[in-house]
C-alpha cells in the first residue's frame, strides 16, 4: 500500500481538489494525471491544506527546499502578502530547467527566486530570521540535517512545514520490518520527528495528510526580530 490512509477516502478527498486558477498549475497537474510526466509534486490534499495555512499566515518571505518543477512555489505565490517573495532551492538540472520554464510562463520571475545547488551548501549562506514560512520537501533522509538551519532561518513565530514525513507509513513500523536499504531513511525520519516534537524551540504536530505532514511553529519572541 502506497497511501497512509484508506484508498477510498484518499480518492474521495482528491476528487474534491478544485481546478487551479493558474493555467501553469493546471498544465502541470494534467500532465501528471495523464502520465505524460512523472514529476514529483505535492499531493492534491497537501496542496489544499497548504493553501488554507497560507491564507491564515499571509507570509511575506517563504523559503522552499526542493522546487522540482516549481509547482508548489507557484501555488504558494498566490498567497503571499503584497511585495512578498519566495526563495526555492533545487539541485537537479532536469528539474531546474522545468522550474525556470514554468516560473517564467507563470510570469513570476520577480516573485520566485530559484537557487541552483544543494541545500546543504545554500542554507548556510541565507540570513538568520528571514522567513515567515519554510516548506521542506526534499530528500527525506536530509530533514534531520537541515533542521538546525531551518530553525535559524525562521522568524520567531514562523512555521516550518515538512512533507512526506510518514514515508508511506513505513516510519510507524519497526525497523526490522523495513527493507535494509530503507533503514537509514527510516531512522533519520524517526530522529527528525522525535526532535521536532521534543525540542524547546518548536511546537509540532504530525498529520496523516498526503504522505504525512509535520507542522512546526517556532516558539517565541518578538515577531519583528
Ligand atoms: C518532492 S520534490 C519537490 C516537489 C515540489 N516541492 C512541488 O511540490 O512542486 C523534491 C525535490 O527536491 C530536490 N532535492 C532533494 N534533495 C535536495 C537537496 N539537498 N538540495 C536541493 N534540492 C534537493 C529533488 O531534486 C526534487 O526535485
Written description of the protein model:
- This protein is 37% helix and 20% strand.
- The chain has a single domain, classed as Rossmann fold, CATH 3.40.50.
- Strand 4, helix 7 and strand 5 form a beta-alpha-beta unit.
- The chain is built from 8 helices and 7 strands.
- With 225 residues, it is an alpha/beta fold.
- The structure holds S-adenosylmethionine.
- S-adenosylmethionine binds next to helix 4, strand 2 and helix 6.
Helical percent range? Answer: 25-40%
The CATH superfamily turns out to be Vaccinia Virus protein VP39
| CATH fold label | Rossmann fold
Bulk shape: globular
CATH architecture: 3-Layer(aba) Sandwich
Q: How much of the sequence is in beta strands?
A: 15-25%
The secondary-structure element order is HHHEHEHEHEHEHEE
Q: First CA to last CA: what distance?
A: 45 Å
Structural class: alpha/beta
Q: Order of strands across the widest beta sheet?
A: 3-2-1-4-5-7-6
Count every beta strand, where a strand is a DSSP E run of 2 or more residues. Answer: 7
Calculate the mean pLDDT score and round it: 94
Number of helices: 8
Oligomer: single chain
Question: What Rg, in angstroms, do the CA atoms define?
Answer: 17 Å
- CATH C-level class is Alpha Beta
* Stretches with pLDDT under 50, minimum 5 residues: none
